[in-house]
Structures are given as C-alpha cells and as structure tokens.
C-alpha cells in the first residue's frame, strides 16, 4: 500500500513538474530552449526600440527583468550558446535602464576600500544568483566564440553589465591581444579593444592583460578625432605605467583634429592632459587654444569641468611640465574663463562653483564680483 501510494505521489509530482516546464517551452514546433527566456529578451528589445517616454520604457524593462530574476533558475541548464548570447546582448543593450539611481561602480568600490569592506565582485544591477547565472552564460558564450567580433560582443556585454568573471574575460582577450590579430586589425578595432580592456579593468577589477602588441600598433596607427580621444581616455582609465610613449605619439598626431573638438571633447582632452601628465606639448597647447575659442559657448556644467582640470595645470603642482610648456596659452585662457564665469553668475551648481573658485585660486586670479558672488555659495555648503 505504502509503495503504491508513494509511486502514485511521485507520478503526480512528475506530472506537475512537466506541466510547469511545459510553460517555458518554445511555441514554435521543433525549437530548442525555453520560450520564456527568448520572449522576455524580445520584449525588452521591443520596449527599448519603442517611442514611449524614457521613464515608461525604464519601468517596463525593470518589470521584465524582475520576471527574469524570478524564472532564471528554470533556464540555467537549458540555455545554449545562442540563447546565452541573446540574453547578454539584450541586457547589455538596455543597461542604461537598469542603473536606477546607483552610484558608479568605481565610487562604490572606493567607498568599500575606505570603509575596509571586501569587494564581492557581483554586478550592481542584479541579484547575486542572477549575476552567477549571467557569468555562466558568459562562460558558455566564450567557450564557443571563435571570431574577434564575437569576443568583442561578449566583452562589451561584460563591461556594460559588470560581470567580473576574470578567467573568462582573460580567455576572450587572449584571442584579441595576440600578435596575429593586432597585426592585421583595423585601427578602429584596436581602439575598441583598448577601450574594452580599460572598462573591464576599472569596473570589474580585471588584471591588466599583456597589451604590448596593442600599444605598439596604436602608437603608429592613423586615428581620427574620436579614436584618439578614446585611446587617451582608455589609457587614463587603466593608469598603465608603460604607456607614456603611446600617449605622446597619439596626442602629437591628434593635434590636427583639435580644431574640430566640441566643448565635451575639450573636457575629455583636458582631463587626459591634466591626469596623464605626459601628453605632447603641442597637443596641450592646441586644446587650450580650442578652449579659448569655445569659452563663450560653455554651459555652467561645462565651465565647471574645464576649470576643474585647468586648476591642475598650475606651476605649484609637482612634476607638472605642461604648465611650463603651455604658460602662454594658460595666460590667455584664464581671462576668458573669468569672463564666462561672470556671465554665468547665478546659474552655477555647488559643484561648478567650487571648480571655478578652485581654478581661480590655484592660478591666483582675482575678481571681486565673481568672488563675492561665489564665495557665499561655496562657504555655506
């Protein structure tokens, strides 16, 4: 009797499990995998490409993600390579909707270090279990990635979603950093690789891989305006000590593009000039002159960012050769920034006011009206 009852219970349980699994089958006959997963991904893509307001799309995508977090365990063992790539590409493509109001990962990591906490390596966008599932999908995709574009797609997804699976990331980069690929790849592809390296080093704490071949090619490659800025920003992100010659070579050739820089480009260039402290002098001078040309168009936040980095270009800062080589351009730029600051009085945020005040003080520039208006704002906060 007991054996019969137990057998009946197991039979009914098996039917229930099969019925639950049936809910996740593909509707198309003969298809493999789980329909829920693919349908969720397609729905996310449809919402992302839709014309609804951003906040509506954001809310809907977060709702779809919550459903995926509920059901991911059903998909763990049944996702093939194709489904793995689909999930990673889809989530990476909508990552801007997943950020919510969180601080940047770098700031979170810095705060953890200051407080003595250990970094867990988990993505800030997902529950721990979902993070592990996505790392499994990343590993499955990497196992079958044979073309450079497949490797870069997986690395891009890992960077966007902050999946810190170091062995898998290193495996993918080995296919992109060997002499054979770097010797034949187009300059744009090389820039993309160095950008991915820097993002994963910063966001996922991946050890800097062997990039000698890559740096050698970049130092001699013909890059356009955007590519040059991306290389400088990437090297700044990594703080690679052996990249001084590459920085000087790339920045020297980028001088011809500076005349096309927008205000945002100027800010990125000033950041590289101030923090790398090894850009070519002709490039630094050209960027400062471009800033003079654009100063009347700067918005309050842009002026604050410009002042933040110009403040670092002062002779009192140790080993700051740029300040000496570009002293003439700086003397011309500071009055222009002061005039623009006077025009924008009353529109500065606290952050921008502090940057403007700090720049003027570092360079010993005094203006009674500007100081009288900005000092109360800065001191009260």
Keywords:
381 residues; mainly alpha; Mitochondrial RNA binding protein
Rounded to an integer in angstroms, the radius of gyration calculated over CA atoms is: 26 Å
Helix content: over 70%
Secondary structure category: mainly alpha
Distance between the termini: 79 Å
String of helices and strands: HHHHHHHHHHHHHHHHHHHHH
| Unreliable sequence segments | 1-35, 101-109, 111-116
| Overall geometry | globular
Multimeric organization? single chain
The count of strands amounts to 0
Q: Tell me the fraction of residues in β-strands, as a range.
A: under 5%
Average pLDDT figure: 84
- Note the total helix count: 21
Biggest sheet features: none
In short:
With 381 residues, the chain is mainly α. It has a domain at 32-100 and 121-145.
Kindly describe this structure:
It is a single chain. The protein has a domain of 94 residues. It contains 21 helices and no strands. The N terminus is likely disordered. Helix 8 runs parallel beside helix 11. With 381 residues, the protein is mainly alpha-helical. This is Mitochondrial RNA binding protein.
What is this structure's SSE topology?
Elements lengths: L1 H21 L12 H15 L4 H22 L5 H13 L1 H4 L6 H10 L13 H16 L4 H14 L4 H9 L4 H6 L2 H18 L7 H9 L4 H14 L5 H10 L9 H14 L4 H14 L5 H11 L10 H5 L1 H17 L6 H13 L5 H13 L1
Helix pairs in contact: 2-3, 2-4, 4-7, 4-8, 8-11, 11-13, 12-14, 13-15, 15-16, 15-17, 16-19, 17-19, 17-20, 20-21
């Amino acid at each position: 009797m007991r054996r019969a009852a137990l057998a009946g219970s197991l039979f009914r349980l098996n039917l229930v499990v099969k019925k639950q699994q049936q809910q996740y089958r593909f509707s198309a006959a003969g298809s493999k995998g789980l329909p829920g997963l693919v349908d969720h991904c397609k729905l996310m893509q449809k919402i992302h490409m839709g014309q609804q307001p951003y906040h509506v799309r954001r809310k809907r995508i977060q709702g779809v993600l919550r459903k995926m977090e509920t059901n991911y365990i059903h998909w763990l063992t049944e996702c093939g390579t194709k489904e793995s790539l689909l999930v990673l590409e889809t989530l990476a493509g909508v990552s801007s909707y997943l950020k919510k109001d969180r601080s940047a990962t770098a700031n979170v990591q810095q705060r953890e270090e200051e407080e003595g906490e250990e970094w867990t390596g988990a993505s800030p966008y997902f529950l721990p279990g979902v993070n592990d599932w996505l790392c499994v999908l990343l590993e499955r995709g990497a196992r079958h990635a044979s073309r450079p574009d497949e490797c870069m797609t997986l690395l891009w997804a890992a960077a966007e979603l902050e999946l810190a699976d170091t062995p898998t990331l290193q495996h993918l980069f080995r296919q992109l950093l060997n002499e054979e690929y770097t010797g034949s790849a187009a300059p744009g592809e090389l820039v993309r690789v160095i950008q991915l390296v820097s993002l994963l080093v910063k966001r996922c704490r991946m050890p800097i891989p062997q990039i000698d071949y890559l740096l050698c090619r970049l130092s001699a490659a013909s890059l356009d305006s955007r590519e040059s800025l991306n290389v400088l920003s990437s090297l700044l992100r990594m703080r690679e000590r052996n990249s001084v010659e590459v920085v000087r070579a790339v920045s020297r050739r980028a001088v011809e593009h500076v005349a096309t820089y927008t205000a945002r480009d100027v800010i990125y260039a000033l950041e590289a000039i101030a923090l790398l402290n090894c850009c070519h002098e002709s490039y630094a001078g050209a960027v400062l002159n471009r800033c003079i040309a654009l100063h009347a168009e700067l918005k309050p936040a842009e002026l604050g960012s410009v002042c933040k980095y110009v403040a670092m270009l002062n002779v009192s800062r140790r080993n700051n050769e740029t300040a000496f080589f570009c002293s003439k351009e700086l003397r011309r730029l500071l009055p222009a920034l002061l005039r623009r600051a006077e025009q924008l009085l009353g529109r500065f945020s606290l952050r921008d006011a502090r940057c403007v005040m700090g720049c003027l003080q570092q360079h010993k520039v005094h203006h009674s009206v500007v100081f009288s208006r900005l000092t109360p704002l800065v001191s009260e906060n």
